[in-house]
Amino acid sequence: QVQLVESGGGLVQAGGSLRLSCAASASGFTFSSYTMGWFRQAPGKDREFVAAISWTGESTYDADSVKGRFTISRDNAKNMVYLQMNSLGSEDTAVYYCAASTRGFGPVLKTKYGYAYWGQGTQVTVSS
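Predicted structure:
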């Protein structure tokens, strides 16, 4: 079982930035064997894909709604994945979830069905 713990959420003004972090752990765990993703869920809406990153960090997917504003990255030595969020707007207000997948890097990672493990989420609120 993989444990994922998100941090870094909070209240920020429109146009501001936040950096989310996700710490991964498990017995006998090899973080670099997992593809990782970020999703978000606003009240009353479905969980939405935000970004995904391959095992090595060389390949990424970004949702169209965050392209050019959000950047996903990972540090395999620290078992961490990050989401740098810039130019935040009210539409980015949501609970953000970190997710881990044992699948290879491919389009299924743009859906919640591609992931076996989820964190508890961290709230991001953007005030206008």
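Summary: The first strand starts at residue 3 and ends at 7.
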